[in-house]
Write a structure and sequence with these properties.
Helices cover 27% and strands 22% of the residues. The protein is α/β, with parallel strands linked by helices.
Length: 203
């Protein structure tokens, strides 16, 4: 199923349908401020396992990230120092992933990893869904085969053609980007950029 959504003035029923899918353990594909991503309710174990299988990743070895609506309840899911919080506040919403120490409220699939990536994308579609869900959304970029056309992870129609049978809904929010988020490790005292992506950090 493909669902067109906009940056504002969406039909509340369309948004609620997406939230119901997430609450029921469904998987969605959606736009962010960087690339299209695949995600699910971050506090539900089974859909997280489905996504890891779909992407052929081992959650014990692979960093997992979550999208939050804002930073107001960030301490429920990660341990964050004052310095890291200030840095995040200056740069979010935006195309960044901040790596923090994971908190015990996250499902045990996260607990094999001591870290969790935190995203607050500058994209109203996924943030509005996140706000209505009242929970974080697990997020990971769409997989692209070596010889596959980039349109299969940027064009919603082609994304639906490729992944539509594997997920519950593809959200069409227009053509997506090709540059990933900038990743900053905030576990140590000094924040460290471990991948320079779209975001330019304001330190």
């Amino acid at each position: 199923m493909i669902q067109r959504l906009y940056t504002k003035n969406n039909n509340p029923n369309d948004l609620q349908r997406i939230v119901d899918i997430l609450n029921d353990g469904g998987i969605i594909i959606y736009p962010t401020d960087t690339m299209y991503a695949i995600g699910c309710h971050a506090l539900k174990e089974r859909p997280i396992e489905r996504i890891c299988k779909l992407k052929n990743i081992d959650p014990r070895k692979h960093n997992l990230s979550i999208i939050c609506y804002d930073l107001s309840n960030i301490s429920e899911y990660a341990r964050v120092s004052n310095a890291a919080f200030k840095l995040m506040k200056r740069n979010l919403p935006g195309p960044f992933t901040f790596i923090l120490a994971a908190d015990s409220r996250l499902p045990k699939i996260f607990r094999n990893r001591k870290e969790v990536g935190i995203r607050v994308p500058d994209n109203n579609i996924i943030r509005e869904i996140c706000q209505l869900l009242d929970a974080p959304i697990l997020t990971t970029t769409l997989p692209l085969g070596e010889n596959e056309d980039i349109e299969y992870i940027t064009d919603p129609e082609l994304i639906d053609e490729k992944f539509g049978d594997l997920v519950d809904v593809v959200i069409d929010g227009g053509i997506g980007g090709t540059v990933p988020s900038t990743v900053i490790n905030c576990i140590e005292d000094e924040p460290e950029i471990i991948r320079q992506g779209k975001g330019v950090l304001d330190e």
